[in-house]
């Protein structure tokens, strides 16, 4: 009983010391040591385990000068809780054995050294073997504790510190149960500590991962910010580039239209031969000049159309479209071409609805481009224009317009490329047949704006079939759906960012020789008294001027205001040939001066872009004069921007016409505005 009391007191002192030491180590880990890498934590645990063994021996029961009973083996037993490598467990055993030698080098000390080393090997071996089986943690450590305690008893008995029989009979019955009891108790406590340790380790690992993720996210956020700033800078550059391009095109349009104005007016005037002074050949030459100038004007308009499409600023005007009127328009436009080339031209709209819902201007320009191509590349045979209703795979009916020709055809590998701007199926065709390759590109973009598409089937040497497929809502009259399709199609191409904050180019304000339904046409100006405004030219061949009707403007006094002497001379010649009396002014200030001197002026033709005082300023000044508040003023400009018309009307202009001027349209407009005054 005396042995048991001594063992109990010794083990209690040992366990209290180790627990206190463990608690201090736990606090150190909680606030400081958790920052250490895992490798250093394992090394620190080995050192602390050896220190715990040393403390156990310090407070152990010393039966003699050389013999000490303690719980030095407990750190070895619980080592598998925190360490997985056998070498680490053996190191703890060897370290505790070496510490035992510091209490004196004698037989008992060497026996203690050997005992600690053996227990380290046995614990490492048991942990390695039992790790192969999926045992419950309590079963796993229970087996290790039992085996290590049995080995400890046997080891002490045969190391010769005490006679084996005496130890096994007198001491072991008391020390072994106490060792088992406190081993289980301490293992249970450390198991909880390990659970907390693992939880903290997992939390630490999670925090590290979160910190790393936060760092990465911060880097990505900074990178995204840099990219956003770069994109904004690029977007700004694109906007500027688009604005500069639009301004350049508008200025170039003005510079090109101004000389074109004189060329077209005078060439038409000469072709009409009002004084019968030109030979037939000279009249033909004048007609060629007029046709070539009209071709140049159409090219300018095509380029501006492409610019508007690219910027996503092309608009559509939906409404009811008479298929009969469209057919008649196409027939009038191309019947003479078919006769000239000795080709057949057939239009078939039987079985097609009389009315569809779409943009008539865009539709007519698409058909005009497709038919122009068909006649251009067809030498023999003919061209057919068909209006059909087809049913798709979903059972929906679609209006379809098909243009079929018997021309040169297109190679299969070129079918998609011909829709690219400035591209033709063969590099030689541009020289053999002429053209810029813009028509098909513009037509497909217009078709997409209408919610449809253009499809092509062709065989080289046989002919081609272009099919304009319109959405089913064109039959049902679903304007809202058509508008949604148009808005979806109005995406800047090929740019990523839609240009903004600059004026839209107007490619069709000019009525001279304009094709019916030309793209981008402005709404018509305010009608003149007693008739509709005539800003669109009649559907006639520009190369074949109409017969001259003299004296249409007899008795009308026209004040022509333009800073370009050629334009003044051209307009004066045409108007005088119709009986008008012309007064000329070369600036806005000169115009105001003449108005103050004369009261017989019936109408003013006012150029808008003039130096010093521009046309809009001059119109505003005129409208401030009581005597001229109702005087008709026709604004003339070569500036191809859609807002120009509205700005001129807001400034006080009565009507608007863009250059180059169509002589017949201008004369008709002058008659509409002056017939009541005269």
UniProtKB/TrEMBL annotation:
Residues 251-474 form the Histidine kinase domain. Its EC number is 2.7.13.3. Residues 511-523 have a biased composition (Low complexity). One of its GO terms (molecular function) is phosphorelay sensor kinase activity. The chain crosses the membrane at residues 7-32, 44-61, 73-96, 108-131, 138-165, 171-190. It is an enzyme of class 2 (transferase). Residues 200-241 form a coiled coil. Keywords: ATP-binding, Coiled coil, Kinase, Membrane, Nucleotide-binding, Phosphoprotein, Transferase, Transmembrane, Transmembrane helix, Two-component regulatory system. Residues 557-674 form the Response regulatory domain. This is Circadian input-output histidine kinase CikA. It comes from Paenibacillus lutrae. The lineage of its organism: Bacteria, Bacillati, Bacillota, Bacilli, Bacillales.
